Amino acid sequence: MKPDMTCDLGFVKLKNPVMTASGTFGSGEEYSEFFDIGRLGAVVTKGVSAVPWEGNPSPRIAETHSGMLNAIGLENPGLDRFLKKDLPFLKKSKTAIGVNVCGHTEEEYLEVVRKLTDEAISFLEINISCPNVKQGALAFGTDPSMVEKITREIKEATDKPVVMKLTPNVTDIKEIAKAAEAGGADGISLINTITGMKIDIERQCFALANKTGGLSGPAIHPVAVRMVYEASNAVKIPVIGMGGIESWQDAVEMMLAGADAVAIGAANFYNPAAALEIIDGIERYLDDHCIDKVSDLVGAVR
After folding, report:
1. Residues designated catalytic
2. Are 188 and 242 a contacting pair, CB within 8 Å?
3. Separation CA 25–CA 269 (nearest Å)
4. Nearest to 175 by CA among 186, 162, 188, 192
5. Helices 144-157 and 106-116, packing angle to 10 deg
6. Is the peptide bond before 222 cis (omega within 30 degrees of 0)?
C-alpha cells in the first residue's frame, strides 16, 4: 500500500506537503506549460499589493556561489489585475491556493486582505519582510511587537487562514515566531531570503542596483533548517519550511526538523520540475523506510 502523502495543516488539508515559494512560481500559469500544477500540494502566488508596484531598477538579479541574489522589489501588477487574470486560472488547478500579500503600511496590507476575504482561496501568506515606510523602512517582521500587532489586525480583518512569512534577518527567530502565534496566526512560513551583497570586482561596482538583495538557493539551506527547527519548537501552530530546498532529501530534512509542509523556491528557476521530483522522492523515501504517512516525519528529530 502506498504511503499516505496527505498533509493536514489544520486550516487546510493538502494532497501532499509540497508547495511553491512566493515569488518563484509567478501565479502558476507560467509553469502550467511544464506540468500539471494540480499535482502540487498548494500554489503560493507571487506577492500581491493593493496597487501596482514597479519594483527596483535593474540589474535586479545576480548569481552567487550555490545561490542567487535578487532585488526585484516585489514588482507586481496589483490586486485588481490579480483578481481579473491570475486567480481565475488558479481556481481551475484543483489544488490549494495561497495568496502572498505585501504592503508598505498596515493599511495597504489590510486593503488587500479585506478584498481577498470573499475569494475562493485556501489561505493568505503575509510577507512581513516588506519595509514599513512609517517606521523608517524597518521591515515589519524584525520587531516582535510589530509582528504581533499586524498579525492581530489582519486576523480581525478576515476569516481566511493567515500564515505569517518570517524574515531570517533577525536576532532570535523564536521570538518572532511566538509573536506571530500570539497575534493569532494560523501558521508561519520560513525562511524568506537572507540579506546579502555582491560586488563586481572588474567594474568595481555593486552587482545589484539596489546594492543589497535577498540571498536564496542551496547556500541558505542549513540556516533555514536551523531556523525551522527553532521556530517549530517554540510554537504550536503549523510551520511551512523553505530555504534552499532543491531535492527530496532537502525536503525530508526540513520536515524532520519540524516543518509540517515545505515550499520550493529558487530551484524552480533552473529545474521547473523540481517540485514534482521532490513529491515523488518523498513518497519513495517513505516506502523505502516503511513509514506509513508523511506526517510521521514532522519533527521526528528533536
Report:
1. 130
2. no
3. 8
4. 188
5. 30
6. no
pTM for this predicted structure: 0.96
Q: Which helix (H) or strand (E) covers residue 125, if one does?
A: strand 123-127
Residue 148's pLDDT is 97
4: amino acid identity, one letter:
D
- CB distance 19 to 42 below 8 Å: yes
Chain position carrying cell 495543516 = 9
In contact, 258 and 280? CB cutoff 8 Å: no
Cell of 224: 533555514
Phi, psi of 164 (to 5 degrees): -95, 125
HSE-up of residue 158 (Cα within 13 Å, Cβ side): 30
The CA distance from 260 to 8, in Å, is: 8
Give the C-alpha separation, 293 to 164, whole Å.
26
Q: Residue 180 has what pLDDT?
A: 98
User: In angstroms, rounded to a whole number, what is the distance separating the alpha carbons of residues 66 and 275?
Assistant: 19
Q: State the Cα–Cα distance between residues 295 and 95, nearest whole angstrom.
A: 19
Grid cell 524584525 is found at 142
d(CA 111, CA 107): 6
Give the confidence band of 140 by pLDDT, cuts at 50, 70, 90: confident
pLDDT at 131: 67
| Nearest residue to 217 via CA among 200, 193, 239 | 193
* 22, 260 contact by CB (below 8 A): no
